[in-house]
Structure formats: C-alpha cells, structure tokens
Amino acid sequence: MKNNQKATWMLQTKKADFAAWAEHFQISPVTARIIRNRDITEEKEVEKYLYGTVKDLYNPHLLKDMDKSIGILQEKIRNRALIRIVGDYDIDGICSTYLLYQGLRRCGAMVDFQIPERIRDGYGINESIIQKAYEDGIDTIITCDNGIAAMEQIRMAKELGLTVLITDHHEVPLDENGEELPPPADAVVNPKQKACPYPFQGICGGMVAYKLVQALYEAFYIPMEEWEEMMEFAAIATVGDVMRLQNENRIVVRQGLKQMPKTKSLGLRKLVETCGLNIETLTAYHIGFVIGPCLNASGRLQTAKLALELLLCSDEQEALHMAEELSLLNEERKTMTQKGVEEALSQVESLYINDQVLAIFLPDCHESVAGIIAGRVREAWNRPTFILTRGEGCVKGSGRSIEAYHMYREMCGVQDLFLKFGGHPMAAGFSMEECHVDEFRQRLNVQATLKPEDFVPKIWIDVAMPLEYVSENLIQELKLLEPFGQGNEKPQFAQKNLKIRSARVLGKNRNAVKLSLVTESGLPMEGMLFTEGDSFMEELGRKTAIDVVYYPDVNEYNGRRTLQIVIREYKIRD
Length: 574
Description:
Strand order of the largest sheet: 3-2-4-5-6
Number of strands: 17
Strand content: 15-25%
Oligomer: single chain
C-alpha cells in the first residue's frame, strides 16, 4: 500500500545564456539547460562537466596532512614496520581497503588488513581491533572510511605506542563550543576538516584512499599509469556510497567505467559475469543496483572480508566460487528485505497511518537490512522512517528522511533515550533500550513540525519539451551527460495532453504498458510505461489523454530503429 498523494510536478527555472553555451560547446540549447539545472554556472565548469579528464582532478597534496602521512609511510616502509589497514564493512570501506592494500604493497610495505564485522564489532575501529593489532606486533594503523570520530580508540592506540594515520570523509566531531575535535592521530586526512584547503569536500572514503595512493606512488617513483589502472575502484566506491556525481566525482566515475573492461581484478570480472552483465557496457546504474549490493551483502550477512578477498583473488575457480557466494548472499538479503518491507508497510496501515514520523519495530528483522527497509517505506509514504530491530542486548535503529525533516537534528531532541546515535539530515542510526521504543515514537511525533505539503513528493522536470524536438541526434547528445546518478540525475522532460490511440499490457508479469500516442500537431510516438499494467488499464478506463514526464529513447527491433519515449510519471486527463 502506498501514500495515495500524487507527486507535484515542478519545472526547473534556473537562468543562463543557453544559446551562448550551445554555440560555444556545439550542443543544443536543451542540453545546455539541463547542464545549468545541475547547478553549473560557469563556462569552465561546463567544459569540465562535458570533457573533464584525469588531468582535471585535484592535486592530492592539497589534502591536509597528506604530505605528513606520506612522510610517515615512507619511513615505515623503509624500516619494514608492520602496517595494518582498518577498513569498514560497506562498499566504500571495501574499495578503500583494496586501494590502500594494493597501493602499499606495490610500494614494498609489510601490510595486512582488518575489517570490523557489522554485528560483532559495529562501525569503525574499536578497542578489540587495537588490542589485537598491538598483540600482533603491528607498528602502524591506517584507517579508511572511518576513524574521524574514534577519539577514545585512537587515544588507546597512542598509549600503546602505535602510529595511527586516519583517512576518512565523514563529518569531524565538534565540542560543546562548536570547535572541531579530531582524534589524536599522527595524521588525519579528511577533506571535511575546516583547515583542509582541498577544493571539493564531497568525496568518499575510497577517493581519499585513492588520492593517498596517488601521492604515495609519486613518492616512490611508480608510474602514474599504474595508479590510473585502479580508478574503477574509486568509481565503484563513489557510486556505491551515493556520492554526488559532480565535480571530480563525475570525472572519476566516467573514467573508472571506461577502465572497468581492463580491470586487473579477476574477482571483479567474475562478479560482473556472475551478475549476468557485460563488463564492456557497465553503467553507474549497474554499480549502484547490481554490483554494489553484492559487495555490500557480504558485510551485511557474513563478513566483508569475503568481498575483499574476491577482489584480491587471482585463482579463476576460487574467484568464481566467491562471486557466486556473494550473489547468493545478495539474493538472501533481497528476500529478507522484501519480508521486512511487507511487514513494515502492514504496520503503517494498521497502526501508524496518522503518524508524521514512522518508527516501526521489527524485532525479528536482521539489523543489517533495517536501513534498506526504512528507505523503501520512506519511498512508499514519503515520511521520515525509522526501522528498529532487536540486537544484542538492545534495540538498533536505522532511519531515512525526507527533505523537510532534518533527521539528525530531530534525534538530538530525544537523545536522552539513546545509548549511541549519529547521522546527518537524510539518514541516521542509533541504539537504545527496548523499553524506550514507544516513548521514542511518541516524542518524535510530538516535536515534529511537518506540514501536509511536506509529504507530497516533488518531480523535477528539466525541460517542458514537445515530442517534435525528439531526434536521434538529441538522444545521442544526451549521452554526453552520463554517468547519471545522485547529483547528476537522468534528465526528465514533460509534455501535456497527448492523445492515447491504444494501450496494451506486456510482459509475463504484466508489468509494462505500450502506448500509441499522438501529439496535438499529429506526430505519432510510441511510449513505454513500466508499472502494474492491469492497474494502469483500470485507472485509464475510457479516458484518451495523458500528461507525461519522459526520457527519449531509440527502440531497436528486428534491425529497425524507431523513436520512443520511456514514461517516468504520468497524469491521466479527465
């Protein structure tokens, strides 16, 4: 069951000299308008957006403490000191660990890695990991995708005489006066630090690690081509951690996708193969929704070391076996998620239909899928959603928000209920005693100040473009805007009052509708709509006109190419 409110369609109205951009860059004014809608304002930014290369990436030495980290690592490598990488169990942490491990080994380091287990260890470096490193004779710990908030843990490591380098991209903790409170490590590389002059804060942990490897290769006179040959892992981390595909993120993802077919990781090849994909034609979508979830599944249901060992594997049969195991784990994760989503939606219908903030307790749900379930319920109802599960000795919770609700700030208003909590405007996590669950739900709803319009989703349209403008040339030109994803969404066009000549349901699951449409000027056009076909036909009834939000496409069938539109949203006209 879904929120029945139809989304509001909003037209982007950002201004620029589209004709001048079109002439200068030899693109259509339509494409120029879309680029402006991605918050690009200067011609040099347009140039970088359309044609940026590795040469346009920022200098890694601009990162605060980068040179200090490289100096320490050079000394440790020369002295054959034992180095341990401490990563994280998600896709960004896995790729960060891979990049640092391969980079340090290439420079001759004595290095191994440790990845915390989600349920046993929780997020990031902890005391037991530090104690084990000390007992193993480790000299230096280098974190990736974690560590910036590990004040007590890093203090413990320093007291034990360990050298600690932090590479991370999360927010720097603040003291009661709002001053930064970084942990007492020997060096901290994180673009979010106020004193860091790096020009772009929005990079993931994998990108920070990739930058460190770049600077390390410079120091050891290793050809930069070898660094570029690992770019696919920075790309996978960027897409998998849902970073905005803007600025240098966009360049790394675009170049990384081109690098993918040449990857030296046999394990990555086998995973792509096992997922039924062609490595030559991978897109950001495939990383975000097929490859990424498989890599993440190991950290959710078993240990992220399985995913990392797959990426490092050099034996064909072993790599194939591990890829298949990851694929099966992901199928198991999907089943668990679907069961949780159905149960959560049922609770909303029967218990919380009038709540502004949804807090749903699923005691038997695996805590690793709580965040995914929260996201699905949020999508269905467009309300801030928390999913709570029964963990070891307490309740664990994961939240996903809507634009109008600053989740972390609202949680600060009930922080006396938490054992631990953290997050940002759109997502959060916490633990609490089970006896506080009902009070948590009640107090969040009492303090919420959301208005009815906040629950209505918005569909942003780039250009209200008549179908007469659709051509193969334009469709080809729109490929310049790829890769699409967070912060560089696939363009959306709109046209009103299309006449429906015919409609028929397709697919064995009846989940597609083919529409024969005609514009007011008489131009015919096929339209594909992916939805519950029978429900759409019932809604359509005898009506014969429709407004659509669409993306233009070319349909190839039996060697014949025809223009069509893929309908993303629709409103049937009375």
